[in-house]
Specification:
By secondary structure, the protein is an alpha/beta fold. It has four helices and eight strands. 35% of the residues lie in helices and 29% in strands. A hairpin with a 2-residue loop joins strand 4 (82-84) and strand 5.
C-alpha cells in the first residue's frame, strides 16, 4: 500500500512539474496584449506565390485572434529586419521607444522551405509520397525595445486527404503550430 502511495505522489509531482514547464515557455509573453505580424520574407523563390503568402498571413492572424491570447493584426509598414552578423538566429530591430508600443510584440518570419508536392501521388500511392510542406523561421520581438524574445520554427505538411488532400492543410499547419508555440505547447 505504501508503494502505491509513493507512486501516486511521484505522479502528482511530475504532473505539477509539467504544468509549470508549460507556463515557463510562455512566461516572456505574459505582459503583451497585441501581436503585429510583419509580412514574412520569402527565401524560397518563385515557387511560393504572393497569394499563398497572403493566405498564410490571414490564417495566422485569424488563428491568433481565435486563441484569444492576443489581438493580432498585419502591419504592412514593417519589413523583415537584418540578421545579427554574429548570430543567424537573431534579428536586429531598433525598437520604437514609444510608450504606446509597450504591450506589443512583433512577429517577423521568413519562409525557408516550400514543396507543394503531388496531389496525384498522395491520392494514388499514399504513404507519404507526394508530401507537401511549408516551413518558416519566426522571431518574436518587443516593439518598443527591439529585444528579441524568441525564435522558433513552424511548419505545415500534407501527407494524405480526400482525393490527395489540399495544399491548404500546409498553411493551416503553419498557423496552428505557431499558435501552439504562443500557448506554450
Amino acid at each position: 500500500m505504501k508503494v502505491r502511495r509513493h507512486w501516486a505522489f511521484f505522479f502528482i509531482f511530475l504532473m505539477t512539474l509539467a504544468a509549470y514547464a508549460d507556463q515557463s515557455k510562455r512566461e516572456k509573453l505574459i505582459p503583451y496584449a497585441k501581436i503585429e505580424l510583419a509580412p514574412f520574407r520569402n527565401k524560397v523563390g518563385d515557387t511560393l506565390d504572393a497569394k499563398t503568402i497572403e493566405d498564410v498571413h490571414a490564417m495566422i492572424v485569424q488563428r491568433i485572434n481565435e486563441s484569444k491570447l492576443f489581438g493580432a493584426d498585419i502591419n504592412k509598414d514593417l519589413t523583415f529586419p537584418k540578421k545579427d552578423p554574429d548570430d543567424d538566429n537573431k534579428v536586429v530591430f531598433a525598437g520604437t521607444n514609444k510608450d504606446d508600443d509597450e504591450k506589443t510584440v512583433i512577429l517577423f518570419g521568413e519562409f525557408i522551405t516550400f514543396n507543394k508536392g503531388s496531389r496525384a501521388k498522395r491520392y494514388m500511392l499514399g504513404g507519404g509520397t507526394g508530401r507537401a510542406e511549408l516551413r518558416a523561421n519566426c522571431y518574436l520581438v518587443d516593439k518598443k525595445t527591439g529585444k528579441q524574445l524568441y525564435n522558433f520554427q513552424t511548419f505545415g505538411e500534407t501527407n494524405w486527404g480526400a482525393f490527395g488532400g489540399g495544399a491548404d492543410k500546409t498553411q493551416k499547419g503553419v498557423a496552428n503550430r505557431l499558435v501552439d508555440f504562443l500557448k506554450g505547447k
